[in-house]
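Action item from last meeting closed. Structure (351 res):
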């Protein structure tokens, strides 16, 4: 080993889901939306003037910030945009979890939280979900340096009603509480309505799931002007131009089409309802999902075995080889046709 290698930061990175390519494959492994983005997004793409790319984009991302502020009926000084919600969350860890006290998040939740905490040297504790994979709000009453949890939770899909979210907020007036609402548009109730009561609440959203734009990378946070100002200070200390010109224009176009958004999220929710019935018939059980995925385990056959068999069939789902999760498959809700192919294979394989 060379001496200079001692200078290298050692980290255990987050492992994203596979991105296999092929015509025949069915991709139900990274919670993408099976429908295309809103038609206005294509028009905006076609109308894009490439000469403009010569210049830097607007560092404040104003057009997108303003359209999101209007959409959520908040001030433009209450919105922060980033390169996917991963970017917003990373900035939020760096900005808000700065006390030296442990940040709290559930033991089973988005596995990137732990990675950011390690990267930024933020201490953390992970209170265990209960036997039904639910968050125990009592666990978040101890002294801490901040709280973050997804709602609905990932990878369980369980939604925590707002009265419980409120309990966590009420027990944490002195720290910042982040609610990661990556999957809120599939039937949950957003904590955005609590913003007027809690200045220390940041709600984080993404265009990757409900707006079918995972490839474009847009996420945002909504909170009090004081929180947003602090986030921007850190962003401008790191990279002024996070949002490129195409993503700003395409993001604005997506927000405009409310009817399309409602139609596609509605279809996914209907397919999810059907998936609950069909998967149950096939011998699976799962927490009651409010997200665009189902976290299922089979009564007889071990999850890893089903995962491998599906992969051979070119049907990709997500498998986490981790304590508490290792007998579950996280199955993204696809189109009805994709789901039919999944049920058909599972029926033959498990039958
Ligand atoms: N939060 C949760 C809970 C997620 O599951 C994901 C998706 N991996 C993200 C945030 C990040 O999504 P994106 O960066 O695509 O907005």
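Sequence:
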């Amino acid at each position: 080993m060379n001496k200079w290698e001692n200078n290298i930061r050692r980290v255990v990175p987050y492992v994203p889901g596979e991105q296999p390519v092929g015509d025949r494959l069915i991709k139900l492994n990274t919670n993408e939306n099976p429908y295309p983005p809103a038609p206005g997004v294509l028009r905006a793409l076609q109308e894009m003037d490439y000469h403009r790319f010569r210049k830097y984009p607007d560092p404040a991302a104003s057009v997108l910030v303003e359209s999101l502020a209007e959409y959520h009926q908040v001030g433009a000084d209450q919105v922060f945009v980033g390169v996917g919600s991963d970017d917003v969350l990373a900035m939020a860890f760096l900005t808000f979890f700065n006390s030296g006290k442990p940040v709290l998040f559930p033991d089973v939740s988005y596995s990137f939280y732990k990675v950011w905490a390690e990267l930024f040297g933020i201490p953390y504790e992970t209170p265990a979900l209960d036997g039904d994979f639910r968050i125990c709000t009592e666990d978040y009453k101890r002294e801490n340096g901040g709280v973050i949890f997804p709602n609905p939770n990932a990878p369980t899909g369980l939604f925590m009603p707002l009265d419980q979210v409120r309990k966590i907020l009420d027990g944490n007036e002195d720290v910042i509480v982040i609610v990661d609402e990556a999957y809120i548009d599939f039937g949950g109730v957003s904590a955005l309505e609590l913003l007027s009561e809690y200045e220390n609440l940041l709600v984080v959203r993404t265009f990757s799931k409900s707006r079918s734009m995972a490839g474009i990378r847009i996420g945002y946070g909504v909170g009090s002007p004081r929180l947003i100002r602090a986030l921007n200070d850190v962003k401008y200390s790191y990279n002024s131009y996070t949002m490129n010109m195409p993503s700003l224009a395409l993001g604005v176009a997506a927000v405009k089409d409310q009817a399309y958004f409602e139609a596609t999220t509605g279809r996914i929710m209907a397919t999810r309802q059907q998936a609950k019935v069909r998967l149950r018939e096939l011998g699976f059980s799962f927490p009651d999902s409010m997200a665009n995925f189902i976290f299922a385990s089979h009564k007889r056959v071990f999850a890893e075995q089903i995962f491998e068999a599906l992969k051979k069939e070119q049907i990709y789902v997500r498998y986490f080889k981790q304590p508490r999760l290792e007998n579950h498959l996280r199955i993204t809700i696809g189109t009805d046709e994709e789901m039919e192919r999944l049920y058909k294979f599972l029926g033959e394989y498990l039958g």
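Note appended to the action item: The mean pLDDT is 97.
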